[in-house]
Amino acid sequence: MFKGVFEAQTVVAASREEVWNYFQDPVQLEEMTQFPEVEVESSGKTEAGAEIRLYLYFGIWKTVWDSVITYMDAPNAFQDEGKKLPFPFTGWKHTHTFQELGPLTGVHDYIEFESVVPAWMVKCFLSGMFKSRKAFVIKQFNKKNKGSSAF
Description:
Blueprint: E1 2-12, H1 16-23, H2 28-32, E2 37-42, E3 51-58, E4 61-73, E5 77-84, E6 89-101, E7 104-115, H3 119-144
Antiparallel strand pairs: 1-7, 2-3, 3-4, 4-5, 5-6, 6-7
């Protein structure tokens, strides 16, 4: 068994309230995740105790990811933990934090994971996925707040 930590940061040209509200709808994962394709089944609310089921599509292979929101501190942070995880994961804890940076908002993802493959392999996959998500989220908020920019 391998353990690892992965972190990603995004700065968004929007208020913390706007960004927080965006991330409170689990269905946003369907739009922001390019690969794998994601389908979300949830109550539509991100609150402590809420369960979220993701169907992940890797071409012809479909798998399920079940998680629960274990911590909520609106509008600062929330955490999800994996309950039923697909290969290669055996453990998953993902903390999302939101920091006000004047007119901008910092989004920080901190992921602790366990897997049956070496951590560097998982980190390579997560790096690509979060790079794509970052570009999508920045673009979304730039559309909403025309003329704004994020770095």
